[in-house]
Design brief:
This protein has one domain: 3-Layer(aba) Sandwich (Rossmann fold), CATH 3.40.50.2300. It contains 5 helices and 4 strands, in the order E-H-E-H-H-E-H-E-H. Helix 4 links the parallel strand 3 and strand 4.
């Protein structure tokens, strides 16, 4: 049986969606095909790499993707928007996703300050995402047999 697809979407695919993909892949990647994409992809933020490395995740040769690269390349049962811009655009981009979730998170890349202050913001967002991912992965274990809802 084919694994259901999970897509995390944000503006640039440089921080929030990358973190969500990596953390969800570690928590539940054996049960799902996991990807991330951005509305307007840009190079990955080095602080994303740093804070994921702190929790034992190496991104290797990860390259940010645009949502257009994933259109028509399979279906996603779950689309999770991790920012407001993606939340507004995703219903139009993936109208056939069976489940659409909104996790509007602060963009850590927009934080100004010293390296340590910015790193603190990235860690905070990583931890928020990790908490949501763990909770959602547990929830998915118990509802996997339930019918689809279109909320």
């Amino acid at each position: 049986m084919e694994k259901p697809g999970v897509l995390f979407v944000c503006t640039a695919n440089t921080a929030r969606s990358v973190m969500a993909e990596a953390l969800f892949r570690r928590e539940a990647g054996d049960r799902y095909e996991v990807a991330s994409a951005g509305l307007h992809p840009m190079p990955i933020n080095p602080l994303t790499v740093e804070v994921l490395r702190e929790v034992g995740i190496e991104l290797g040769d990860f390259e940010p993707r645009g949502v257009g690269e994933l259109l028509g390349r399979g279906s996603f049962r779950y689309v999770v928007a991790v920012c407001q811009a993606a939340e507004e655009a995703c219903p139009r981009i993936w109208p056939f996703a069976l489940h659409f979730l909104s996790w509007p998170l602060e963009d850590p890349a927009s934080c100004l300050g010293t390296h340590e202050e910015r790193l603190h913001t990235f860690r905070t967002i990583r931890n928020q995402i990790h908490d949501r991912v763990r909770e959602w992965a547990e929830e998915l274990k118990s509802v996997a047999h339930l019918p689809v809802d279109r909320k």
